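Model: You mentioned two targets. I'll fold them one after the other.
Researcher: Yes, keep them separate.
Model: Target one:
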Amino acid sequence: MKTVFVTGANGLLGTNLVHEMLALGWQVKALVRNPDSFKGAEHSHLELIKGDLQEDLCTHMDACEVVIHIAAETRQHLLRYSDYQKINCNATISLFRSALVSGSVKKFVFVSSANTLGHSDLFELGSEDKAVRYPFKDSYYAKSKLEAENFLLQNKDSMDVIIVNPTFMLGAYDTKPSSGKIILMAWKKQILFYPPGGKNFVDVKDVARGIIAGIEKGKNGEKYLLANSNLSYKAFFELLQQYSNQRPIMIPLSKWLLHLLGYGGNCARFFGLETSISLTNMRILCQNNFFINKKSVQELGIKYKPIDAAIHDAVTYFKSENVLR
């Protein structure tokens, strides 16, 4: 029986991944801050480890063949690069070194982000071999993830390193919620304002299966985009209407208005006010952040489900948790 050490097991992806691995017979050691908040039943092959990334985790990796590092700082309102670097880069480096010291870990799987790769529009989709572009290269989150990627790739001769780059994940067990906020912001609205850009959406279950496939089939030092449906924000919200049974008046937001809001957010951040509104984030909303999944399909053998299934799972979960009213 293979044993894996997983960080970020309480999050959207972590919870789905743990469930998937247990179903496949893995022994899972899951790092969580609060074991009581884990959304899953007790299992004989699951060990919940209370702790955080700032601790020495080497002893918890005993007998683990694989480390899957999911935990990350994703909040958009933090003001300094160091706020993201501390978790997304420095903690990754520390975890990797602990895995080396353990002596049992053979593979280190880093869950990064598609935002570290070059995006494009429908005419030339972004892929693993394209470098990050503006405005994402100005994103503290993306920069910190890319810094961690570069360190791991520079040390791939010490241990097998697999990097997966998911796009925007949707599905059940979004407890915060995190990416599911896009559903909440549009649910049962009579008037819905939407930005001019778009993004790639993927079912979190497909990402979980992609990580497992990466362990089994991934090549050392390679990146794998886990991506599926390229949709404009307008198209996504129209798809969501099938589950809300309501057709709001949809009004597009202009680029200049979003840029103006971004300048205002930058001024607030300059004076120390934490806000997710910034010029970089507003410019990102105006981009068609589209990708292709050709490499993960061909090399990892992933069969992606329609994004409708992910939306259905997310809505069903939110309803069961009384998040949607």
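Model: Target two:
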Amino acid sequence: MPGKILIVDSIATNRIVLKVRLSNAFYKVIQAADPNEADVILQNEAIDLVMVNAHLESADAIAFCRRLKTGPKTSHLPILVISSQHDREMRLAALKAGANDVLVRPIDDVFLFARLRSLLRSLETAEESELRQKTGQAMGFAETTTSFVAQSQIHVTTPESATSIRWATVLKTMMPYRITPTIHSDTLKHLSGSKVPDVFVIAVDRQKPDTALRLIAEIRARASTRHSGILVVVDDERRRILVDAMDLGAHDVMMNGFDPDEMSLRISTLASQKRLSDRLRDNVTIGLDAAVTDPLTGLFNRRYALPHVERLCSRAKLKKQQFAIMIADLDHFKQVNDQFGHATGDAVLTEAARRLREHLRPVDLVARIGGEEFLIAMPETTPERANRMALDMCSVMRERPVQVSSINKRISVTMSIGVTMGGCGHLTKPVNALIEQADSALYDAKLRGRDQVRFAKEHA
């Protein structure tokens, strides 16, 4: 299933029609007639997204959104408010209350499903943050807090300079962020030598909409910017452009042109999500004691990884999702140590860890569990996606030798990976058994010549 969606609507016909549309797209749908019924469902079901009618008969939909965002078990859930009319004040109130967007009927399926895909991608990061926090707490470690939060960097990019300057000037009076105006053609050039933006605000040119789409694709392709938030702005309801933008990686869209109140709310949400994503990628700032991190690579170690994977398994069972476990090993690594020394070997290991961490999603776990051996856990992953990611990781190691500056040499490195699947549709096995399966698959990859991916065979 792509996800489990809760519909909250007082009108049964609305619920049924929406359920049919979503079910046809393979979403699992649960219905509630009012917030009280929704509360019961949320206590007992693993919901991925909530859709609520803006005009509930016996309750305040905005207050319900606010309650969801302040509840410890529901604060991470994406919320879509569905309205029967364009109402700017209601839209702003919903966004302030924590809703991710307000969609106005009639909503075509292509746009609706693109919006759902975009929101469910952001849910992965929020859930992974919660999972890692609980793992640390269960092991007796608490997250450290910092009194300093860097000022968020926002780039406003439009087709012409006058528009971007005007937007940035207005937003600066409303937000405590550093806001930089640019034009489309200068956006990427402007990044060299400057701090990477936390959020890009990209206006679509009516005459040349493909320019904005190419910019989104380029931002997503670059290692330095692929985790930045993207808000796309159009001044009319060109749904096809917005669908393409979301599928290319835009996190949020505005369909009514420049509205500083609405834009500031959406930017603030994206900036908060970016800070969360940064915290996930930076294993050191997760705040666990050094006892659960590998001092050489900065990755988690076996002590942290195993209980984390246990929790991942439990969550996958609850949500009826698949996940992948991989064991990756650098090929002929002993020869590197023997020929160049252990200091060079350490440099190679550190670079391998950096490449793995950069290539994987923020929600994926990578840990060093042995000398040159890494454990990778990928939640909500199909076998096809796991295979593609593993092959890509082998390519990342193979195609670019490691430059070791201390000896002024480039050292070629390859990696073998064993993969096993767990969760929905696979035999129930404890974590240790899954890791043993992945390790056996790794051994098979080594026997077959190394620098390849092998899947474990499931036994009846």
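Researcher: Noted. Anything on target two?
Model: Confidence is low (pLDDT under 50) at residues 142-147, 283-288.
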